[in-house]
Amino acid sequence: MKLLKELAFAYLTEETPVKRFGILLKVETLLNAYDFKSRSKFLKDFKLSYFASVNSSQKIEKGKKENYDTLILYLSAGKNAGKDLCTFASTGCRLACLVESGHALLEKRAGKAKIAIARMIKSWVAIYRKDICDALLCHEIKLAKKNASKNGRKFSVRLNGTSDIEFYNVINAFPEIQFYDYTKDPNRIDLPNYHLTFSYSNQAKARFDHYKQAISRGQSIAFPVVASDYDQALSLPDCYDMDKTDLRFLDKHGKYGILKAKLTDNLSDGVKQGFILTLSELKKVINKIER
Hints:
Layout: H1 2-13, H2 17-33, H3 39-46, E1 53-54, H4 58-61, E2 68-72, H5 91-95, H6 102-109, H7 114-128, H8 130-150, E3 154-158, H9 168-172, E4 178-183, E5 194-199, H10 205-216, E6 221-225, H11 230-234, E7 239-241, E8 256-260, H12 267-272, H13 279-290
Parallel strand pairs: 2-3, 3-4, 4-5, 5-6, 6-8, 7-8
Antiparallel strand pairs: 1-2
């Protein structure tokens, strides 16, 4: 499957829509023909170290202070892999997406694409071979849970690290494990072992209906706020800190979670598009939800 990595690089660098579509057709053909035997063989064939990972970002790692290990899956986000993995994302959200923050941002600025290619391959597996994706995730969840128990740690799973798609088959396979996600999908529902936080996207009228629906379901709403207004935002009524850890299922109070906007190359565009909020904008949005 060396060819798949070559196709991922080609897709990343190709700008012509017709040629990009041709690449996706080749990818779909290759994956449909792939005979999945085991996780170890898959990783060897696709030149990957893992499919999902444990405590693999700065924020996820903060869960350690609550004695949690968290397995998380990072895909390409948005339409980066040829199919929209974040259907309800706004323009501002897409521009300031966290898929290009942290290590991925550093790699991009260094002119490299190892992380982007790996995420694209995983995304294609999730898109074209969901059966393989689910099998890999189930295997890795079992391994990670066993390792956490061995080390006396609690365990949780977030499958939408940089995507917003449904994984109910996997979630239902592990009723004893705590799953959680952020979502902009108003049709996504909580399960006894699946905690959802609704994410702000924009100020369109229909979205306010979704925000109110989320509040009525008992879900909190996560707001990205410019770093300079972060501390003041936390002092607003019913607002609380979502940056201390990523373990949203442990949240005990507050309807509105505040996230400090992370550094990406398009951070300023996210602000201009009204996705990343200033203090005054946040107040206006909350007031409108409360009406």
